[in-house]
User: Fold these one by one.
Assistant:
Number 1:
Amino acid sequence: MDDISLKALAKINLGLDVTGKREDGYHEVRMIMQTIHLYDRVEIKKTKSPAIRVETNLYYLPVNEDNLVYRAAKLMKDEFKIKEGVRIVLQKFIPVAAGLAGGSSDAAAVLVGMNRIFQLGLKQDRLMEIGLKLGADVPFCIMRGTALAEGIGEVLSPLPPMPKCPVLIAKPGVSVSTKFVYENLRINEYTKHPDIDKIAEAIKKKNLKDVASGMGNILETVTIPKYPVIDEIKSMMIENGALNAMMSGSGPTVFGLFQGEKDVRRAYDALKQSGLTRNLYTSDIHNNRR
Ligand SMILES: C[C@@](CO)(OP(=O)(O)O)[C@H](O)COP(=O)(O)OP(=O)(O)OC[C@H]1O[C@@H](n2ccc(N)nc2=O)[C@H](O)[C@@H]1O
Ligand SMILES: Nc1ncnc2c1ncn2[C@@H]1O[C@H](COP(=O)(O)OP(=O)(O)O)[C@@H](O)[C@H]1O
């Protein structure tokens, strides 16, 4: 096999809490991670020339070592002394710098894809270890499904599949840097922490309503004051039938969980009309692990 085409799926955080800060500046988290069916397409072709070449449909994305797919390919080449090169064609559909782990998922796809086309025979755990060098969310993007993430996001405990439901994804026309959000997080005794265990319990009981009512993201305390439009989008989703709506990751994307297709359509139409969002997609829960 000389080439492979893979989906790089986005994630949402059904819950996100920060419990401490490490000496290296990274934060200790407790998060409920969920893969959704919104994806980039990553094609990888083996080439005789040793170079890594990247092409993408988004003109503003770098195609050098600043692109996570380039970094992932370089890491695999160096680690496993691969002499050949790769040509990577990246078709982006996941909004960039949105809190949906698009870049991390693209990198995960390159690790998985190169493991296959170069027949390296690496187990998933090993790929996840390598992935952590590229970003805290990469191990989850390799595993997929539903999981409790601890540590800096890399200590993963699989959870049973989240109940299926329509998901509305709405990103306002602003971009947020994850680094900025973590650096500006201030936690004190008044800060409300989401109950991560309650969400995990609701998932185990397959109770969608309790998952929705338990949703919470401590990073909203940084991103929403800076971009109040996030709150407007959340309110609009809830007023139009969402079980609940919340910011994903460091934002600014808002997702809503819905009971059925009719509800999600109503909220989609309302948001489309409002002009509050630049990217608006209906999606759903993707439970299959890799
Ligand atoms: C907030 C989350 C929630 O899933 O997702 P996104 O909003 O990025 O999608 C993640 O914790 C983001 O993970 P990821 O985007 O892979 O992080 P990295 O590239 O490793 O780090 C980006 C920046 O965030 C900070 N960071 C990241 C993870 C973490 N647990 N603590 C941190 O303080 C790092 O210091 C770094 O400056
Ligand atoms: N393949 C990639 N896709 C998207 N962004 C990338 C990629 N490679 C590098 N980046 C850079 O990483 C930053 C964060 O990207 P992304 O993963 O989309 O966001 P988030 O961490 O919020 O989920 C962007 O500002 C972008 O310049």
Number 2:
Amino acid sequence: MSESPQGDVSVALYESFTQSVRDLADTALRTNAGADELARAQAEIEAITARLAADQIPGTHGEHCSTPTGVSGWGNTVVGIRNAAAMPLRFSVAGDGMRLWADFTPGALYEGPPGHMHGGVIAMLLDQALGELSMRSGHPGLTANLSIDYKAPTKLNTPLRIEAWYDRTEGVKTWTRGHITTADGTVCAEATGLFILPRWVRDLPPEEVAKAHQHD
Ligand SMILES: CCCCC/C=C\C/C=C\C/C=C\C/C=C\CCCC(=O)SCCNC(=O)CCNC(=O)[C@H](O)C(C)(C)COP(=O)(O)OP(=O)(O)OC[C@H]1O[C@@H](n2cnc3c(N)ncnc32)[C@H](O)[C@@H]1OP(=O)(O)O
């Protein structure tokens, strides 16, 4: 059993626990249960929440578990394995760090136009993909600019692929690009991002900056 930063809980158990919470959110959205059943379920959910809240970290997971250059990803709203609001995306990264991708099928929780993904959620996923690629390519930074062209409606409950690749670096500025495609290769949205190594990181000793990475 691998140990988490917070104790002797395995990663697999965190993943499975959080997936159950996600399933609850999806089911809560789509259930046809009547008033009595909803009231009973609500009381049970609130009891579980109170039980788990009896021992919890203050603030956010990232604040609690990060160092200046070692960013904790477990609470991340796109990839966080402990974040029930995250899909979560699971990126594969090319050996040279110059490209990454993830396959996913968004469900009802991510709806904007009926039956379609919310444009803000699309932007959020692309921000993460392009930002994570910036880091994986060895040029970490915060998003300074993200530009998105929405080319075709992005259907829910349909297999999609998100992909990001390296473009170029000029000093502290790195540009990456990416898109979301359907199984037949239709591009639903494409993006360009500018990621800047912030001044407060630039002011760290160079050996600290070189260690910038994302961990559990
Ligand atoms: C906490 C992470 C720290 C990052 C590095 C460390 C470790 C990274 C490791 C892991 C990261 C992990 C996961 C990341 C994955 C995905 C996360 C998704 C990404 C996000 O969700 S992230 C949140 C949203 N994001 C923000 O919250 C940024 C708010 N913002 C700022 O924090 C500042 O605004 C900043 C830092 C952008 C710049 O500030 P600054 O003081 O460091 O830079 P400064 O002013 O010195 O400019 C230097 C040169 O950039 C040019 N420049 C500046 N801003 C520009 C702009 N907007 N457009 C075009 N050019 C611009 C200047 O013109 C100058 O250019 P020149 O040198 O050519 O004159």
